[in-house]
Amino acid sequence: MAWENARHADAEDPLADRRRAFALPEGVVYLDGNSLGALQPAVADAVRRTIDQEWGQGLIRSWNDADWVGLPARIAGRLAPLLGAHADEIAVADSTSTNLFKALAAARRLRPHRGVLLTDDANFPTDRYVAEGLADLLDDLEVRVVPATQVIEHLDTHVAVLTLTHVDYRTGARHDAAGITRAAHDVGALVVWDLSHSAGAVPVDLGAWDADLAVGCTYKYLNGGPGSPAYLYAARRLHDRLRSPIAGWFSHERPFAFADEHRPAPGAARFLNGTPPVLSMIALDAALGIFADVDLAELTDKAQALVARFHAGATTRLARWVQVVGPGPGAPRGAQVSLRHPQAGAVMSALIDRGVIGDHRPPDLLRFGFSPLYVSHADVEQALDVLEDVLTTGAWDRPEHRAPRAVV
Amino acid sequence: MAWENARHADAEDPLADRRRAFALPEGVVYLDGNSLGALQPAVADAVRRTIDQEWGQGLIRSWNDADWVGLPARIAGRLAPLLGAHADEIAVADSTSTNLFKALAAARRLRPHRGVLLTDDANFPTDRYVAEGLADLLDDLEVRVVPATQVIEHLDTHVAVLTLTHVDYRTGARHDAAGITRAAHDVGALVVWDLSHSAGAVPVDLGAWDADLAVGCTYKYLNGGPGSPAYLYAARRLHDRLRSPIAGWFSHERPFAFADEHRPAPGAARFLNGTPPVLSMIALDAALGIFADVDLAELTDKAQALVARFHAGATTRLARWVQVVGPGPGAPRGAQVSLRHPQAGAVMSALIDRGVIGDHRPPDLLRFGFSPLYVSHADVEQALDVLEDVLTTGAWDRPEHRAPRAVV
């Protein structure tokens, strides 16, 4: 019955044919696109061409002839519609961590007399490390960590900057970005959003949110490849007043003038930094091509439909063994669902051995992401069947599943 | 005569066969390896395998199964002997700009009551931008820029950190790194060296220099590919006291524990940062393989022999048209020579059209780098012949050579 319904949903899915753009291994149900998006053969081709032709034959000339210098702007143009942004509001550079550092430092400079950097206890640990690192560097800034459900109550005129991850990486809970941004602005604070678990999976509209700054990674739902470069968003209304703390030469108005004095590039490009990792940039550029003719509402609706199917199946069929974590049906969430099990690492290991790839977040979460470009409704049913089998038979309770795995 | 001598030198060159590891285009004399090192087909193969097999088939599992998590340490192990360092003194991450920011900030924290960040007017512009950016972020630090020949005279007890580029990117002049480091230590200052134009081309021995911190890029003489990740060196004796200002999760002792509190990784790995760009890291890892059985003294001797040949030829044959810039014969320099010509951009354009690729540094320099793994003595003679031809015939004085090119 559920399978029949899934087959019907797949037949009706306007995005079903996009799966063919991806090179997924035979027999694998891949539910970890929220951690590392899948490969498109077109990406492999683009990187090959860049290495063999542009680097190998063109050599240094390819910075101009193959327009490597234009890569950050070109990728910004592809990302902009996914974020509800203008291309000149996006800098593609560095890792999410470095971008968060730059964004927090730049935002804080606009509120120099306020001493609090506010975040919540659901934020991704790196984001907290980066915030603490900035506070540690400056003398007059402290990080305040409050419960995720009480962020608005803790906003006051001491808060210089609020930084939150839009979608909780563990529970999938999704903040009301527009409402929180409004509340922060009401007390004169700026907000830096981390969209790593959002872009390409749930609706993001930085313009409509009246967002100040944001950062995000591109190797999850955007499929840019392992460790592909991240992005930083800065709203146009702030451009003239924002300065990046790390002024690598690509942030210069004219990098190749080798001028003694730094003059920031116009727009968000002032947050570019050192020489970009071209091979990883090329992969990202090619990976984003698929979004050009995707209807974003269809994309995020499909993700929610997959989530709803998994959530309902887990709740009805697996409740004896696992707790379904996070928001209930219909409540805002990311394109992921986590299940709590005391031996989550071993259970995930057993699932992976059976071709269902999710991940494990310590101490006790099984996490499944539903990347709407290549996950089907049938995949969800298959995952539920395998999960039920592994849990009912106790197949996870074997020595080979007890070795801890590092999972990024 | 000169050609005969060059052929003889090539026949005697113990590194001559290394050129076969590189995929240089037919008919090109490539003298811009100081800007972008050439491609090795082994690098193309490694990246292809990583994309098709590790990313495409292994997906998220490759962080463990293909040991992507181990890439920074693996590359550090390859770089260490090139730098006179221990592997645990090197973090491979980010761009040179970001690493310089991290190194300067970390060094300054060890001298919190000193207000001067000293550098010289020959430093690469980005390094100055980054230094200014840090000073701008902190309240009590100023950048002082002094003439390159007077650095030691300007060292005093107000100097927290001295930062210099070992080899001047324009003139090729090379600082006495050991002597300057000693002089800085004598006044209690720390030194951050930028080795971007040094490693793989001139002798570098951070241990013998008693160096504190250093950074460098890997896409020049190390051939890591366009924008390949950079490195940061931190001396063991400082490890316990150094803290990176940007505490991305790969700098954590246990990144995959997702702990609330940041605990720095042991050694220089505390300067790792966000998720590394794996494709660019893989290229770098493969590119460094060739150095494993290269005698470093042979490598740097060959570079100096090529430099001497070009310098002598330019001085004797081209003095009517160009000024040979920088240190004289026998004086310390990098593996590069620059020639001054009022229309340097047009001259370089004409050279490139004739298959001799160097670069142009504004306003008036022609720059030639001699990467010892793949440049031959015959290449140098060929370049001199073409240069002489272009200069005597005035072949550069054509409209098509007047369009400015951005050159990285």
Walk me through the structure.
The structure is a homodimer of 408-residue chains. Chain A is α/β, with parallel strands linked by helices. Helices cover 36% and strands 13% of the residues of chain A. The first copy, chain A, has helices at residues 2-12, 41-58, 62-65, 71-83, 96-109, 125-137, 177-186, 206-209, 278-288, 296-317, 344-353, 377-393; strands at 29-30, 90-92, 116-120, 142-146, 159-165, 190-194, 213-216, 231-234, 323-324, 336-340, 356-357, 359-361, 365-369. Chain A has a seven-stranded mixed sheet, with helices on both faces. Chain A has a four-stranded antiparallel sheet with strand order 9-10-13-12. Chain A is globular, with a radius of gyration of 22 Å. The two termini of chain A are 36 Å apart. The interface between A and B is large, with 89 and 89 residues.
Helix percent of chain A reads 25-40%
Number of helical stretches of at least 4 residues of chain A: 12
Q: How far from one another are the termini of chain A?
A: 36 Å
List unreliable stretches of 5+ residues of chain A: none
* Derived structural class of chain A: alpha/beta
Instruction: Quote the beta fraction of chain A.
Output: 5-15%
Which strand order does the major sheet of chain A show? 2-8-7-6-5-3-4
Mean pLDDT of chain A: 96
Can you tell me the overall shape of chain A? globular
| Rg of chain A, Å, rounded | 22 Å
Main beta-sheet annotation of chain A: 7 strands, mixed
Q: How many extended strands of chain A? A: 13
